[in-house]
Task: structure prediction
Amino acid sequence: MPTVARAVRRPTPRPDAPGLVDSWGRTATDLRISLTDRCNLRCTYCMPAEGLPTRPSAALLQADEILRLAGIAVRDLGVRQVRFTGGEPLLRRDLIDIVAACASLDPRPEISLTTNAIGLSSRAAALAAAGLDRINVSLDTVHAATFLEVTRRPFLDRVLAGIDAAAGAGLAPIKINAVLLRGVNDGEAADLLAWALDRGHQLRFIEQMPLDADHAWDRGTMITAAEIRGRLEERFRLEPDDEPRDGAPAELFRVHARHGGDLLGRVGVIASVTEPFCADCRRTRLTAEGGVRSCLFSHEETDLLGPLRSGASDAELADLWRAAMWAKPPSHGVHDASFRQPERTMSAIGG
Ligand code: SAM
Result:
């Protein structure tokens, strides 16, 4: 059975607490900011082949607005980690300036980036120098034909060059996020793990979630965490890692050769659907248009950009943000009979 949040609801009204608390007892300290709704890939489990309508850049958060909101988050709302995502965040020309300004916030948050790595080869060193602490690269296969099938773009070489540049720029250990699709790349899970282990990258497989534009996600055919482990065990021996998870979504395994004793590295499996970790969720999200989402699967957003542009004070913006998070649902509800997929795809929310 999936775990859901602790079923004890805090009393209303919302307490006058400084952080981003919700009525189910969680506190968000991890902020994901989507920098753009545009992407240069068309992954089948995320975007349609023809792309999605994008908003004019003036309708998106500008660099100074991102910094103002990130500043409120770290100074007044207890946020400790800021992750830039998208869309594809490397498509923002001002990404390096945004990272540098974020690194000058006090208290300084940990700054990370989720990217497909296209174009990273020329910017990795500058991003590291600007203060980027960690990087997650999304890569579902190391085979060019499969990459083309999954992403509908022939850019595997650019991605691999970007990952090498990030390692060269000192952004290691690099986390690699992979999604497995039945009949497409599920037979290649062990190849991807072998590739990551050879290079010292930390691979995490993430169960596919119902956040695709084509609404093709199917509970019955998605590759579950248990199956992912099974695919890896065809080539490797996995042992549960005994490090405490401390709320981290990935279940970690120590990886050994199938018939050998040496530790080759670790691999993570994130069972977002079959064993959701909502009870430990510490995330708050800002969309590229400045909407707060308390959950990836929310149907509601709280606009901060409109009030910000109309002259709201930091205290007013912080209060709107707190109110949005107080209403965070206890779980994403994918298992409920009443589950409805959000209108927005992962790329439009900020994955
Ligand atoms: N463009 C960047 C990238 O590729 O990492 C950031 C945005 S992308 C939407 C963030 C992550 O969301 C990627 O790792 C992608 O694989 C994942 N993702 C997108 N749709 C998903 C889905 N339906 N289920 C699980 N993960 C998904």
Q: What stands out?
A: The first strand starts at residue 20 and ends at 21. The CA atoms of residues 190 and 232 lie 5 Å apart. Residues 39, 45-46, 85-86, 88, 114-116, 138, 177, 179, 206, 208-209, 211-212, 346-347, 351 surround S-adenosylmethionine (CB under 6 Å).
